[in-house]
Design a protein that fits this description.
about 475 residues, mainly alpha, MetI-like fold, two-stranded antiparallel sheet, 22 helices, 2 strands
Length: about 475
């Protein structure tokens, strides 16, 4: 058993590494600028003013670690600099990348980019017409690398300022930097590969190290630690899904065995029809219908009052508050349970029917063993494979939560947190939940493997024999 467990665990490390790479890559490609999202969502006027300045942008980006290389190494065209990660503003970085790709020489592209920034900072606040026109032109220059568009814009800047003043001089230097870059291209550099090694001081390494320590960053929405928000939601999701899982398996396994023992009788056929109906019943429709039936004062019976969960005060006592929570979770628990119960019971019934036709079952009957002993001791263990497979897939869903059910019943679980975070573009929360779900999917598959080896020792022995030379 130990060797079998180690054999399975050996696959986990590379799998988790690939999962972390995918989660990190998705977080980097998420829409929106993380710096602006973090600054603007605070609702603080001082932070809004800070966000409008380049200094405030750079300081916030450094806090988020965005001034570091993305990965341990890069394989980019030789025309690109090894300091590209230090250009934090995405508009500026895109301009530099396009200039390097078009003209192939980083030194000349850097001189042009520095001249653009120097000119932008040299423009005075007065007169207003000159300020507005110069800012409009420089804004256009940040979004183009086409020489046919750049040269006329630079010539307009030169004509915009009186000859001899500082702004006119800077505009002429700006035009000279572009002329030098355009006149001395090395396009072939854009087609040669360039390998750059950055070491451990990179964004992915720090992100992964923080995740392993349980630090998932801060929410863009309210600045709270992601860990605290996920943990608060995880509590209710675990309570709801664990109870639903125990209820589904506790009812479906005996029901599937009973249906298989009475195969082709009216009990079996009626039970299958009822289970097929439950499995085909949409959970969102059932949740909405039950919500109206049992809670609405004008339409329904109002047997259950749906307010905020844990609405009992702390002085009401532990049992009173737990009973209040169970009352709120009765309907969502039913909606999460009936579909799984129906599917697991049908799978268990079919597996049990096939198992009861095996030779060793006929041998056990020939020996005079009681039917109950044959069903529960000999047949059930080998018929559990479909149920075990489903458990491996249900396990991560217990953590990810149900977006539909939690939203309909207004439960503060992981599903509702995921939906709210996606609408708010709170990507640290979204990708933390994604990472946890992926890790728990692997854990669920490992759990299923362990249960396979418990249910049938031939699984464990087969793996050990394959690893033996």
């Amino acid at each position: 058993m130990g060797q079998y467990l180690l054999h399975r665990l050996a696959y986990l490390v590379p799998t988790l590494f690939v999962i972390s790479l995918i989660a990190f890559a998705l977080s980097k490609s998420a829409p929106g600028d993380p710096v602006e999202l973090l600054l603007r969502r605070t609702g603080d006027e001082q932070m809004d003013e800070l966000a409008s300045t380049d200094r405030g942008y750079r300081e916030t980006a450094q806090i988020l670690g965005l001034d570091k290389p993305v990965f341990y190494f890069t394989l980019l065209p030789a025309a690109y600099p090894d300091t590209l990660h230090r250009i934090i503003n995405p508009i500026h970085r895109r301009l530099v990348i396009n200039l390097c790709a078009r003209y192939g020489r980083w030194a000349l592209a850097e001189a042009y980019f520095n001249a653009l920034q120097t000119y932008e900072q040299s423009v005075p606040d007065k007169p207003r017409e000159i300020l507005i026109e110069s800012r409009r032109i420089t804004a256009e220059l940040y979004h183009t690398d086409q020489g046919a568009s750049i040269r006329p814009a630079l010539e307009r800047l030169v004509r915009l300022h009186p000859s001899g003043n500082k702004e006119h001089t800077e505009a002429k230097k700006f035009l000279a930097a572009f002329t030098n870059m355009e006149s001395n291209p090395s396009v072939w550099n854009a087609y040669l590969p360039g390998f750059q090694w950055f070491g451990l001081d990179n964004q992915y390494h720090h992100w992964l190290s923080n995740c392993l320590r349980g630090d998932f960053g801060r929410s863009f929405r309210d600045g709270q630690p992601v860990k605290s928000k996920v943990w608060a939601a995880l509590r209710w999701t675990l309570i709801l899904n664990v109870l639903s899982l125990l209820l589904a398996y506790g009812l479906s396994i005996p029901l599937g065995i009973y249906m298989a023992a009475h195969r082709d009788t009216w009990i079996d056929k009626g039970s299958q029809a009822g289970l097929f109906f439950l499995y085909a019943l949409p959970s969102f429709w059932a949740a909405t219908l039950l919500l109206l039936l049992f809670t609405h004062p004008d339409i329904g019976l109002q047997w259950i009052t749906v307010t905020q969960i844990s609405d009992y005060p702390a002085e009401a006592g532990w049992w009173a508050r737990r009973l209040s929570d169970l009352r709120h979770m009765a309907l969502p628990m039913f909606c999460l349970t009936y579909g799984s119960l129906a599917f697991i019971a049908l799978q268990m019934r079919n597996a049990m029917v096939e198992t009861l036709q095996q030779d060793y079952i006929r041998t056990a009957r020939a020996k005079g063993l009681k039917e109950g002993q044959i069903l529960w001791k000999h047949a059930m263990r080998n018929a559990l494979f479909p149920a075990i497979t489903l458990l491996g897939s249900i396990f991560p869903a217990m953590i990810a939560g149900s977006i539909v059910i939690e939203s309909v019943f207004n439960l503060p679980g992981m599903g509702k947190l995921t939906l709210d975070s996606m609408f708010a573009q709170d990507w640290p929360v979204v990708y933390t939940i994604l990472m946890l779900s992926a890790v728990l999917t692997i854990a669920g598959l490992l759990l299923a493997d362990m249960l396979y080896s418990w249910a049938d020792p031939r699984v464990r022995l087969g793996a050990e024999n394959q690893s033996t030379p």
